[in-house]
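For consistency, the fold was encoded as tokens, which produced the following:
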Amino acid sequence: MHILVVGGAGYIGSHVAREFLDQGHRVTVFDDMSSGVQENIFSDEDFIEGDIRNPEEIQAAMALGLEGVVHLAAFKHVGLSMECPDTFAVNNISGTINVLNAMMEHNVRHIVFSSSASVFGEPSYLPLDEEHPTNPESFYGFTKLEMERLMRWYDELKGIRFASLRYFNASGYDVHGRINGIEKTTTNLIPVLMEVAVGKRSNVQIFGTDYDTNDGSCIRDFIHVNDLATAHVKAMEHIVDCDESHVFNLGTSQGTSVLEILEQTRQITGKDIPAEMTNRRPGDPSKLYAESKKIQKVLGWSAKHSDLRKIIETTWQVYQHNFVE
């Protein structure tokens, strides 16, 4: 298949593009490079610099004779989405409309979409399954849910089949060491810990140590980005072969606490990594992890690389590559 990976020069996008290439598919990357990294563009894929907010640019990309699209071009900063909802609405919602309209125009009938666990909001029960109520507590989560709703309507009215993958915490780097471009800006826990380890930050803030957990810190579901990339390929192949749409939670069905990750990172890097214990952030639930039975049953997918040690080791290798002489 010929697949357009929208946002394919970014952290997750580059791993997804690499997995499609590894499985023998042709890949064209479409990216505006606002968060993408040149180092993450591979020699065996085509590249188009473009912006989903510009209908003409995404229309041109869709004219390449594609079988499917992977959409990873949404803005993803929770806090910033609350300050700048207009920016997030235009890129995430209007941009997705442009993608879907271009697909319809050029008879591209399959899309895999990077959604988010943020569509759920405060959990009513754990682990979270696909039937859990959706009640996002951030504008970012709202845009992801609206993007899913758009795809449902295009599926019903225009026959565009979709797979929406609701990520939990994507982490780690390519287990084969082929991807070394780090994100330009990040607020995610493990990259922040790495920035402290290499001296780019002075310390890490731990938001809340009084939760109802074993050590008082939040518990989250961390999935290795290689496992996540494999799910994208399997999802695309399934919706093409079976002509049906799906929503999948994409996690490991187990959680790891923030303080456990801090301690493991200290051990693996050999760095002290000073930590400042501070107050909870509004809207942070104490525990958040996924039920993955549906994706295991439908796609035969399972997390093979998502043990915490491998996640931290592969991330540390990339940060050493970029920052340690």
Summary: The chain has a mean pLDDT of 94. The CA atoms of residues 75 and 261 lie 26 Å apart. DSSP finds ten helices and 14 strands in the chain.
